[in-house]
Specification:
disordered N terminus, 10 helices, mainly alpha
Length: 328
């Protein structure tokens, strides 16, 4: 059977030092390594930015879908514009350079998303030499899962939250009131919403990390759950760009669900740590009991030897003292 690898907290100081010895380098070498990693990440970002800027019109068409889908539900082609018909969907810009800067902004943010795996990889390569082996594996998993969770949050916002949000905002349209969305305002609102939901979906990873380092437990999280419901609606009111209650509710609801899922993650970590601590304590108690038994055995052996020596001395004294009849 293969020998089970020891965790970092079970390694000796020499073993920990040996794990870190391979990653040590002079200060100037650190600066050179940092320069190389920043250069590689910058190159990846520039390439991703140029690609996304070239396809910025297609990306913006995709970002407009939630708004245009809601708009088309209230548009009858060829019909006169009325309270129930909003007309064909359209967007406006109020500055001659606005479409250009909107395309640049799309290329910038989409480029960050596209280049993020390489950027995270370069960051990982820079900090990995200073970590233990177990920490390196955990860091890789966290970097991968954080990207997945962030994308899931952004997609949840795009496909579930934004249609509800734009449906509510466009409900103010009437015969004498028409919405003419500005492309810059629309992009800012969509981008801010997707970033906010992406950050919120990182909650399970954050709580899992805090549970790993021992700052929280599932018991404390469960006791705080009733207060977290209120806190979730406050955070939703702060992070959601729109002032409507719908967007706040749509952010608070998944936040509460993710919090309760995080309690399960914390429960797993806490139970695992407690079992491990119990096993270590039992092992230490067993070793202490064995050591105590060995000390008792040595003490008994010494006492037995001393008793045997005393008996031998008594026998010698008895031999030296002659019987009473012989002296007479």
């Amino acid at each position: 059977m293969a020998k089970k690898a020891l965790d970092d907290d079970e390694l000796s100081e020499d073993e920990k030092e040996a794990q870190l010895a391979g990653g040590r380098m002079p200060f100037l070498r650190h600066l050179v390594e940092l320069r190389d990693r920043v250069r590689n990440a910058a190159i990846a970002f520039i390439i991703a930015f140029l690609i996304c800027w070239y396809f910025s019109a297609d990306i913006f068409d995709w970002l407009k879908q939630p708004l245009f889908d809601i708009w088309m539900e209230h548009h009858v082609p060829g019909a006169a514009v009325s309270a129930t018909d909003w007309g064909p969907p359209l967007m406006i810009y109020t500055s001659m350079t606005q479409p250009f800067w909107v395309g640049m902004s799309i290329g910038l943010w989409a480029g960050i998303f596209l280049a993020s795996p390489i950027i995270f990889y370069q960051l990982w390569k820079f900090i990995a030499p200073g970590l233990y082996k177990r920490e390196r594996n955990v860091t890789i998993a966290f970097a991968f899962c954080s990207g997945i969770f962030f994308i899931c949050g952004a997609l949840f916002c795009f496909y579930f939250t934004l249609p509800k949000l734009y449906g509510f905002l466009l409900s103010y349209n009437s015969e004498d009131l028409r919405s003419l969305p500005n492309i810059s305002d629309y992009l800012d609102l969509t981008k801010a919403s997707m970033l906010a939901f992406g950050a919120i979906f990182e909650l399970p990873l954050l709580i899992y990390f805090l549970a790993m380092v021992g700052l929280v437990t599932h018991r404390g999280l469960w006791k705080f759950s009733r207060w977290f419901i209120v806190l979730a609606f406050i955070i939703g009111a702060i992070l959601t760009p729109g002032p409507d209650v719908i967007s706040q509710f749509l952010m608070a609801t998944p936040m509460i669900i993710l919090y309760n899922i995080s309690i399960l993650f914390a429960w797993r970590v806490t139970i695992k740590r407690e079992r491990k601590a119990k096993a270590i304590q039992e092992r230490l108690d067993k070793e202490e009991a064995e050591a105590k038994a060995r000390r008792m055995a040595k003490k008994a052996a010494r006492m037995s030897e001393e008793t045997d020596e005393d008996e031998e001395e008594d026998e010698v004294v008895v031999r030296k003292v002659p019987p009473k009849g012989e002296d007479e």
